[in-house]
Design a protein that fits this description.
6-stranded mixed β-sheet; 839 residues; Immunoglobulin-like; single chain; L-arginine/glycine Amidinotransferase, Chain A; 6 domains; elongated; 11 helices; alpha+beta
Length: 839
């Protein structure tokens, strides 16, 4: 086995080195000398004693050397468990039926999902005892993050705690999960995390592709309970060392995932991607051929690449003489061809790993761990040139992070620090969702920065700012304002052309502080502001329209829009929210530079009830600084003090003639109100002998207009009788329509005194007013009394009438006016209005 050979080779090398050191010590004391490959001793006795000492020392050295490495791991059948499962292990699992064993399935979460990346905020790290990592790494991690150690029992926990105490590990940050395990590769069987509706964290569990290690396969169930997180489990064959994601929508594995799930579950690539989307929210998933295979069969992506940020990836590089050189270059080029989830090109960093396809040298540099602002990199027990070069690459790729090399003899090229640790996502994460500005942007005079902020523990957001620097200067803070739906925004004006670097900072009431990008100022987002082409510039003389009406008429208001820019301006009016009384013209148009357009707003108050009316519309344009402008609208209808009052001297026309001639009658239309009165005559129902002039008109306040009714009897026979009517419509809100009755009679001997006449007396009157009529052919149905301001004081419908002074040919109606104050009044009788004085 290759890995076994590696262990033996390295142990033998170290053993030889240590033997040489001991022999050199004895040489210096004159115990032995080297000459022509022979050991020359001073006496036989000395030779015997010396050889015994040497053999004893060699035994001690051999035992001591073995303790420098992680101890071999065996399963219950005594089969050695390597990082890559052996054929013996797989056959044993098959014989026990473990390769087809179904595990606890849990359906995917419901809601909007987002995968959580390794470089996002973590609250802990998961390791297992017996360890596969040096105590120096545990000590370093425990300085500022929780270390959760998996132990099999309380006695193991006591043992570990004693080791931590003896090595000055910060035990205040140490917790323990009691669970049976098979191996220490917590990365491979540990959980994957997802955010659900940006309000909490869940655990994704899977079938660990090591069927001979059932205890490892149960760890996520124990861990989910320990963390009080919901667990969502799929039967996909997966392993954590062969998974990385960008924290937004993109994930990566080698093609081992597709081949194993096709072999064991019959799932094709599309079906695998569908499950990863359902459980983790991964919209894009990339399966990349492993460049190390077949020199090592592990086929884990963390053996040769690592995502450092949503737009950064580290890819191992081997010498051009290496048989896998082209495979590594193809993988690097594949990453370079991608567009990150931020919309930016993927940045590819390379680290030399000449041992990637062999057992020597040891260069497992992509197998590192990111824990918040620290990066732990696996390097050799004695730091060499390859190690220093790798650390320098991390420093370049991740400015602002603390890059920590972890010296250890137990690292392998395809099994190092990342494989044996696992970060635990922060369950109370303060998540900043932001689409960065990048590349070149036209300088329009302002730049808007916005972000969505979410506390996964529902803590209130207390602070959000964008820090900006221009052309390498000092950062300046700009406080962002809450908009709605978890969104914060700030528009910054006056930024000059040049390189703009920025980062966001948010805090919540729990004290959490996070940046975007995660490390903040040392590695900010960047874009260039450049000169813009000629642009239109919208200017508006006002952004509101307010009108008041005291009449039932049309009132116009005007808004002037101008183009003060250097390019053609287009505009469009949309989203009009107002009463139907409003008409806007024009609704769209185009303005050349230095041109203007008047927008007319016509408010039609005819028939509109008194009150206030509010609304708005949107003015859209191609001015990049004024893409949308809201115009507010306000209108008041107050016609109570300004209204026309219609008065007719009579509501009927009755004529007779003794000759075949033209007879004229007259109806006087008066306006007793304080606003213009308009009228119109329609629906004339009478013989063609009648002509009415005028048919419409306008009467100013306190003015009258006479309507002439011409009856032409010249072509009719004597003795004919005619009746009919017409409608007089007006803008008097109280009397919008009156019917005028018509009667004509041609006969000899008709006395003009017998025509219908209406009188009122006494005038002035004190308590009672009498209405006297000479003819009751047309009954009086409606009487109203108004004061000189137009206010109505009395209204009588269908008043009773009686013969006047005992004469049956005349009738009278008594009206009580005792309640009226002294003054001038108008009495309106069926459209005819008479004036009287109350004493």
């Amino acid at each position: 086995m290759q890995l076994t050979a590696y262990f033996v080779t390295n142990r033998f090398r170290n053993f030889v080195v240590m033997v040489k050191i001991i022999l050199q010590k004895y040489y210096n004391k004159g115990i032995y000398a080297h000459s022509q490959k022979k050991i020359i001793l001073r006496s036989q006795t000395t030779k015997i004693v010396t050889m015994k000492k040497i053999l004893f020392l060699c035994l001690v050295i051999s035992i001591s050397t073995a303790t420098l490495f992680a101890q071999p791991i065996y399963n219950e059948a005594g089969i050695r468990l390597y990082h890559t499962p052996s054929q013996e292990e797989m056959e044993w699992a098959k014989s026990k039926g473990l390769d087809t064993l179904q595990r606890d399935f849990a359906p995917p979460p419901v809601g909007e999902l987002r995968p959580i990346a390794e470089f996002e905020p973590a609250e802990a790290v998961l390791i297992r005892y017996p360890f596969g990592i040096p105590i120096s790494l545990i000590k370093e991690m425990a300085k500022d993050i929780k270390v959760i150690t998996i132990v099999a029992s309380e006695s193991q926990q006591t043992t570990v705690l004693n080791q931590y105490t003896n090595n000055n590990v910060n035990t205040a940050n140490c917790e323990f999960l009691t669970a049976e395990t098979n191996t220490y590769w917590t990365r491979d069987y540990g959980p994957w995390f997802m955010a659900i509706d940006n309000s909490g964290v869940g655990v994704f569990d899977f079938y660990y592709n090591r069927p001979a290690r059932p205890n490892d396969n149960q760890v996520n169930k124990h861990l989910a309970n320990y963390l009080s997180l919901n667990r969502y489990a799929s039967n996909l064959w997966l392993t954590g060392g062969n998974y990385m994601n960008d924290g937004i929508q993109m994930g990566f594995s080698t093609t081992l995932v597709t081949s194993e799930n096709l072999q064991h579950l019959g799932l094709n690539e599309s079906q695998i991607k569908a499950q990863l989307q359902e459980y983790l929210g991964l919209e894009q998933y990339h399966f990349i051929a492993d460049p190390i295979y077949p020199y090592d069969n592990i086929q884990h992506i963390d053996c040769w690449s690592k995502l450092l940020a949503p737009d950064k990836v580290l890819v191992a590089r081997v010498p051009a003489s290496n048989p896998s050189y082209n495979k590594f270059e193809n993988a690097a080029n594949y990453f370079a061809s991608l567009t990150s989830s931020w919309g930016t090109p993927m940045q590819v960093f390379r680290v030399d790993a000449p041992g990637a396809t062999s057992s020597s040298p040891t260069t497992p540099y992509t197998n590192s761990l990111i824990l918040n602002n620290k990066v732990f990199v696996a390097i050799n027990a004695t730091t060499n040139a390859n190690d220093l070069a790798a650390l320098a690459v991390y420093e370049e790729a991740m400015p602002g992070y603390e890059i920590i090399g972890i010296n250890y003899n137990g690292w392998l090229n395809t099994d190092a620090l990342h494989c044996r640790t696992h970060e635990i996502a922060d369950r109370c994460m303060l998540y900043i969702k932001h689409q960065p500005h990048f590349a070149d942007m036209g300088n329009t005079g302002s730049v808007t920065f916005s972000a969505e902020l979410y506390s996964y523990c529902n803590n209130a957001i207390s602070y959000d700012s964008v820090y900006i620097r221009v052309n390498g200067g000092a950062y300046q803070p700009y406080e962002m304002q809450y908009v709605d739906n978890n969104t914060w925004s700030r528009t910054v004006t006056g930024l000059p052309n040049g390189l703009i670097e920025y980062y966001l900072v948010a805090k919540d009431e729990s004290g959490k502080r996070e940046c975007h990008p995660y490390i903040g100022a040392p590695d900010p987002h960047k874009f260039n502001l450049v000169s813009t082409p000629e642009l239109p510039v919208l200017a508006i003389d006002k952004t509101s329209s307010s009108v008041t009406s005291e009449e039932f008429t049309i009132i116009e208001d005007y808004i002037t829009i101008s183009n003060v820019g250097e390019a053609e301006l287009t505009f469009n009016i949309t989203d009009i929210v107002f009463d139907e009384m409003l008409t806007i013209t024009p609704l769209d148009g185009t303005l050349e530079p230095n041109a203007s357009q008047i927008i007319t707003l016509s408010y039609n108050f005819a028939g509109v009830a008194n009150g206030e009316y509010n609304g708005s519309f949107k003015l859209l344009s191609n001015d990049p600084l004024h893409l949308e402008t809201e115009i507010t609208l306000h209108a008041i209808q107050d016609a109570s003090m300004a209204a026309p009052i219609l008065s007719l001297d009579k509501t009927s026309s009755s004529v007779s003639t003794e000759e075949l001639t033209v007879v004229e009658d007259f109806i006087t239309v008066s306006n007793l109100g304080n606003a213009d009165l308009t009228f119109e005559i329609t629906e004339i129902d009478f013989n063609e002998l009648l002509t009415i002039m005028p048919l419409d008109g306008t009467v100013e306040p306190d003015q009258s207009l006479e309507i002439t009714l011409s009856y032409d009897f010249r072509t009719i026979a004597k003795g004919d009788e005619y009746s009919g009517s017409f409608i007089l419509s007006s803008n008097d809100p109280e009397t919008p329509e009156i019917e005028i009755t018509l009667y004509a009679y041609v006969n000899v001997g008709i006395n003009e005194n017998e025509l219908s006449l209406i009188y009122i007396y006494p005038n002035p009157a004190t308590d009672e007013l009498v209405i006297k009529m000479s003819d009751m052919r047309y009954a009086i149905c409606d009487i109203a009394i108004y004061d000189i301001s137009g206010r109505k004081w009395s209204h009588i419908s269908n008043p009773p009438s009686a013969p006047a002074s005992g004469r049956e040919s005349q009738f009278s109606i008594q009206i009580d006016i005792s309640h009226l104050s002294a003054g001038v009044y108008f009495i309106k009788i069926e459209g005819k209005t008479l004036k009287f004085v109350k004493q």
